[in-house]
Amino acid sequence: MSAAFDDYVSAVERFERVQLRIAELDKVLQRAQTVLKRPGDSLVSNIDGYSFGEAPLLPNSPALDARAWPKIEDLAAAVSGYHTTKADASRAYDRLSETERSRVNVPNGLFR
Questions:
Q1: N or C terminus: fewer CB in 10 A for the chain?
Q2: Is 102 within 8 Å of 5 (Cβ atoms)?
Q3: Contact 100, 4 (CB under 8 A)
Q4: CA angle, 10 as apex, 75 and 15 as ends, to 5°?
């Protein structure tokens, strides 16, 4: 394969890694939303100085690990990375020959 093909494969891998990071952040934020909707039986773990009553004793209590909470810079980096890697993958796709384009899988979201 050509250098353009190798560049495309690398660009797509970076784009997909960013999408996975965004999915991880989304999972943490969804968990936080569950905790906020059910504060009476929820808790936040790994943070000192707060009391959660009997919540830890309830089965299936929603919990949020404070160590997993992202900083705003994490969110900004993920969103910025999405735009950058998507543009890189799109440009790399444009450099492929027609034959190479027919042989590659275009990642979900690349041309939306």
A1: C
A2: no
A3: yes
A4: 25
Cα 84 off chain centre by: 14
Collapsing DSSP to helix, strand or coil, 37 comes out as helix
Contact 64, 32 (CB under 8 A): yes
Please give the Cα distance from 96 to 30 (Å, whole number): 38
Cβ-based neighbours of 109, under 8 Å, separated by 6 or more: 19, 86
**CA dihedral (81, 87, 93, 96) positive or negative:** negative
Model pTM score: 0.83
> What is the C-alpha to C-alpha distance for residues 22 and 31, in angstroms, rounded to an integer?
14
pLDDT tens for each residue of 6-42: 999 999 999 999 999 999 999 999 999 999 998 888 8
Q: Is 57 in contact with 40 (CB distance < 8 Å)?
A: no
Rg of the chain over Cα atoms, rounded to whole angstroms, equals 21
- SS3 label, residue 44: strand
